[in-house]
Write a structure and sequence with these properties.
Elements (H helix, E strand, L loop, with lengths): L33 H25 L5 H5 L5 E2 L3 E6 L4 E6 L3 E7 L13 E4 L4 E2 L5 E5 L6 E10 L2 H6 L7
Antiparallel strand pairs: 1-6, 2-3, 3-4, 4-8, 5-7, 7-8
């Protein structure tokens, strides 16, 4: 156990009596004092506040139309059917009239000819962005997981423009 050393201020020469209050006795651990710790804590708080202000000032401004758009999410249990549009894009029919398009990170083996897929939502049962979902396709060598990069809701005109085999 390390020994605790006490520090006393050096002796002062005797002075003439004055109206000044007597000097205080300082006792503390060697290597730091309470006052220094308070100073360091205040410095850290000020540095954190300055970093926060710089971060807020440097943040990009969000346009008004971006903020007014609601998040386009769906529940994974509401998906009725799917159709692959190549090996990197999967279109989903959600509910009665909604269609979503999933863009995959890379080619997903067998997604364009399989009869069934699994849609796994991570972090909850809603899917709002690409990081919320992954697709699993059956394969001869076992299930293949395909990461989703982007999720977007298709407009009615985009749904009408889909090729015949790409509409779920």
């Amino acid at each position: 156990m390390p020994a605790t050393a006490l520090w006393f201020p050096p002796e002062r020469p005797a002075a003439a009596p004055s109206s000044a209050p007597a000097a205080a006795l300082y006792i503390g651990r060697v290597g730091g004092s309470f006052g220094r710790r308070i100073f360091e804590m205040k410095t850290r708080v000020l540095a954190a506040a300055a970093a926060l202000l710089i971060g807020v000032a440097a943040a990009p401004a969000v346009s008004a139309d971006k903020r007014s758009q609601p998040r386009q999410c769906f529940w994974n249990h509401q998906v009725n059917s799917f159709a692959a549009q190549g090996d990197r894009t999967v279109n989903l029919r959600v509910g009665v009239k909604d269609y979503y398009q999933l863009e995959l990170f890379g080619p997903c083996p067998d997604v364009d000819w399989t009869q069934k897929i699994a849609l796994i939502s991570r972090g909850g049962s809603t899917i709002c962005s690409g990081l919320d979902a992954e697709i699993v396709t059956p394969s001869v060598i076992g299930p293949q997981k395909c990461m989703v990069r982007n999720v977007r809701k298709l407009s009615p005109t985009e749904v009408a423009a889909l090729p015949k085999g790409a509409k779920p």
